[in-house]
Amino acid sequence: MGRTRRIGVRVFIFAALVMVVVASSPNWAVAQPIKIGALLSMTGPFVDPGKDFRSAIELKLDEIGRKVAGRPIELIIEDDKSFDSATGMDKTKKMVEGDKIHLLIGPLLGGIRLAVEPYLDRAKVPNICLSRHLMKAAKDLKWNFMPAGILREYSKPLGWFAYEELGLRKANTISDDHLAGREYMAGVIDGFQEKGGKVLLQQYPPAPTPDYASYITAFNKDADVAITFLGGRGTLDFIKTFFDFGLKDKMKILIVTNGEFLKEEHFPSYGDEILGIAGLTDYNWRIDNPANKKFVKAYEAKTGKKPSPFSSRGYDAISIAIAALQATKGDTTPETLRKALQEVKLQTPSGPLSFTPLRIGIRDMFGVVVQKIDGKTTWGVVKTYQQFSAN
Q1: Is residue 24, in this structure, part of any structural domain at all?
Q2: Which of 1, 44, 119, 314 is the most buried (most CB within 10 A)?
């Protein structure tokens, strides 16, 4: 072999070794996108929450230039079509097996969530859930993070709020007859009875129910409060019928997850009768802290409207993902990312957020009442339950 040829072979081998070293270097990953999936309801009856989630997620990504730790972020959004569990599973598999996502945000609805979460756990894909969950899931699913909390525990402060802050003592309750409805209402009842309140009547109509007249007629008239969890248009229809029955001055209405069912845009159709209705939320656009003021201003500039609790939840979810990726310096190795998510401590628009060892959100909760503030009918924050979480 000639000298020139030997030099050429050595140069080729050296170049190949350099390529191997570069390819195995962490810096090689810098140019590769971090793929974040979002399973949202972009059609069907829950399209409005889906739009709020998407707007908030896109807002946060725009704020950071769609990069973290030097790596570009690729957002992949799929539509679960609201109540369609089969579609939700198909879209999740497509993102995991086809798109090779590193993390999934969503879904919202319980039926779809219960279908896809065990699959994500087996696939070891971290999942930031957009809805509240059962304690059993927190114990069984190791890759699921629940910043919004646990169904039954989430609603307990509303029972405290009713008894301690609003002076209410005897309740009628009415809730959709499904898992979430019964769990939410059980939590309110737990909190109310814990403080000394009494529940005189519990009702669980099927969802949806077109007419609440018979249920309101059955109310125990000795009660001083009606506590509700009615999805879709249920809350709006219930309130109208309740007012038509002339009960406005005889019983107070309390709404679990108020801002999701009774929004400020609904208030004008009720006039001043709406004043005094109370509820519980994990977000209100009037929360007075720097992070929320910045969020409200940016969200309103992007969408032309104030952020909803759904908007806040979407913003929290993507912010949690970004904080974890910053901590790993862009490392998307599943176990490394899962551990970083567990350690996230964040200042969100609604206040400080972190996780219990079971990956349940520790966060502030708010008792709110419909009030006139600066001449505008709005949800006003009257009580803060700081750093609340499931026991």
Answers
A1: no
A2: 314
Q: How many whole angstroms separate alpha carbon 200 and alpha carbon 208?
A: 24
Looking at the structure, tell me whether residues 373 and 242 fall in a common domain: yes
Write the CATH number for 103: 3.40.50.2300
Which residues span the domain enclosing 41? Answer: 32-149+288-363
**pLDDT more than 70, % of the chain:** 92
Within this chain, do residues 158 and 126 fall inside the same structural domain, yes or no?
A: no
Number of structural domains (the chain) is 2
Instruction: Identify the weakest region by mean pLDDT among 73-87, 235-249, 255-269, 308-322.
Output: 255-269
SS3 readout for the chain: CCHHHHHHHHHHHHHHHHHHHHHHCHHHHHHCCEEEEEEECCCCCCHHHHHHHHHHHHHHHHHCCCEECCEEEEEEEEECCCCCHHHHHHHHHHHHHHCCCCEEECCCCHHHHHHHHHHHHHHCCCEECCCCECHHHHHHCCCEEECCCEHHHHCHHHHHHHHHHCCCCEEEEEECCCHHHHHHHHHHHHHHHHHCCEEEEEECCCCCCCCCHHHHHCCCCCCCEEEEECCCCHHHHHHHHHHHCCCCCCCEEEECCHHHHCCHHHHHHCHHHHCCCEEEECCCCCCCCHHHHHHHHHHHHHHCCCCCHHHHHHHHHHHHHHHHHHHCCCCCCHHHHHHHHHCCCEEECCEEEEECCCCEEEEEEEEEEEEEECCEEEEEEEEEEEEECCC
Give the Å distances, CA to CA, from 344 to 317, 330, 380: 11, 15, 29
* Domain identity same for 328 and 245: no
Same domain membership, residue 382 and residue 237:
yes
Same domain, 251 and 381: yes
Q: Would you say 44 and 81 are in contact if contact means Cβ atoms under 8 Å apart?
A: yes
Tens of pLDDT, residue by residue over 320-376, are 999 999 999 999 999 999 999 999 999 999 999 999 999 999 999 999 999 999 999
pLDDT value for 2: 54
Using CB atoms within 10 Å of the CB of residue 382, give its burial: 0 to 12 exposed, 13 to 18 middle, 19+ buried. middle
Q: Are residues 69 and 183 in the same domain?
A: no
Residue with tokens 């979002």: 38
